[in-house]
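Record type: monomer structure entry
Structure origin: computed from sequence
Chain ID: A
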Amino acid sequence: MTEFIHPERQAELELLARFPLASRQQGIKLHRDAAPDLLAAAQRLHASGMTSSPDGGYLTDAGFHLAQALQGVLAVLSRPAGVRPPSHELIE
């Protein structure tokens, strides 16, 4: 069966989901002994302008909006079955 999400994209999404969104002054720092797929994902996110550093750093404006959207999707998908989000959350 073909994978729907390429493993490289999956690692990038996983990393974006880890960024704290409460403050733009918070970031993440990957250590050299982190999983190789996450280290590579961090470098790709930096190369595409989503983060300030190849080892994590801070989210850029574009990265913040992307992480915010991703974390919103994950929050909706994490709700118990049958619980619908308020209608205003579906259109923001």
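Annotation 1: The chain is about 50% helix and 10% strand.
Annotation 2: The longest strand covers residues 56-59.
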